[in-house]
Amino acid sequence: MTTKSLIYGHRGVPVKFPENSLAGFAYAISQGIDGLEFDVHLTKDQVPVIMHDEKINRTTDGMGKIADYSLAELRTFSLANGEPVPTLAEFLNLVSGEPVHLNLEFKTDKQYYQGIERIVLRMIQQTDLVYPVVFSSFNLRSLQRAYAIDESQKYAFLSSAHIGNPEWFCTSEHLEGLHLEHYQPMSRVSQRVWTVDDPDELRQLFDHQVNAVITNNFELATDIRAAI
Ligand code: G3P
Ligand code: MG
Known about the structure:
Helices cover 29% and strands 19% of the residues. It is of the alpha/beta class. Pfam families: GDPD (PF03009).
């Protein structure tokens, strides 16, 4: 029996919309995307917002660190399409009840946000979602904190490096899986590979039946998967 790999939009659909924008997420859902990957930080007043970088310089018309702005201050800046930086609450309102898989990345590896795991988990617990969220992070400590708060959720460690004995590592760290930059043979744990836009690499990963690929161009990946 073959298992179809899921296709997750990395930061939404950055080939067509500003990354991590509600417009991109809404478009992807309207087109029936399997899953969405997105990155979460906290504002100075502890509101979870969706953006990749710790600073707003690259993706908005403002400058500075998310952690130094209140939500009201952050919302005076705009993404390239004019929309404000999305809050997690707005995102959850958009995806609630939709048949889309979610991969929420705690962006806590460069800047740690005190209490982010508890705040985010509470919001997820209060939202009507079709599938369980996969929480990922490059910061294993964040996943450990989250697991201590809610053992029932799915946690995945993000790594650019090879993981020795992935099954043992996942069991001992209470992880459902690994989100890897490079494919590794493994069994009994989920593997999602990022960020894959190359057609040949996508074909190989679909052949390996990884649980998911995380891509900037979900429409290309969907066409490739359909042709296999
Ligand atoms: O979750 C996969 C990928 O998003 C991890 O890297 O830096 O794009 O968040 P980054
Ligand atoms: Mg990410």
